[in-house]
Amino acid sequence: MASTMLSLVSAALPLQENHKGKMNLGSSDCSSFLRKEKRNPFMKTKSFGRINMAIAVNTSRFEGVTMAPPDPILGVSEAFRADNSEMKLNLGVGAYRTEELQPYVLNVVKKAENLMLERGENKEYLPIEGLAAFNKVTAELLFGAGNPVIEQQRVATVQGLSGTGSLRLAAALIERYFPGAKVLISSPTWGNHKNIFNDARVPWSEYRYYDPKTVGLDFDGMISDIKAAPEGSFVLLHGCAHNPTGIDPTPEQWEKIADVIQEKNHIPFFDVAYQGFASGSLDADASSVRLFAARGMELLVAQSYSKNLGLYAERIGAINVVCSSADAAARVKSQLKRIARPMYSNPPIHGARIVANVVGDPALFNEWKEEMELMAGRIKNVRQKLFDSLSAKDKCGKDWSFILKQIGMFSFTGLSKVQSENMTNKWHVYMTKDGRISLAGLSLAKCEYLADAIIDSFHCVS
Amino acid sequence: MDPNHTISASATSGSDFGGSVFDHVVQAPEDPILGVTVAYNKDPSPVKLNLGVGAYRTEEGKPLVLNVVRRAEQLLVNDRSRVKEYLPIVGLAEFNKLSAKLMFGADSPAIQVKRVTTVQCLSGTGSLRVGAEFLARHHHQRTIYIPQPTWGNHGKIFTLAGLSVKTYRYYDPATRGLNFQGLLEDLSLAPSGAIVLLHACAHNPTGVDPTLQQWEQIRQLIRLKGLLPFFDSAYQGFASGSLDADAQSVRMFVADGGECLAAQSYAKNMGLYGERVGALSIVCKTADVASRVESQVKLVIRPMFSNPPIHGASIVAIILKNRDMYNEWTVELKAMADRIISMRQQLFDALRARGTPGDWNHILKQIGMFTFTGLNTAQVAFMTKEYHVYMTSDGRISMAGLSSKTVPHLADAIHAAVTRAI
Question: CATH assignment of B34-64+338-420, given 3.90.1150.10, 3.90.950.10, 1.10.10.10, 3.40.1390.20?
Answer without folding.
Answer: 3.90.1150.10
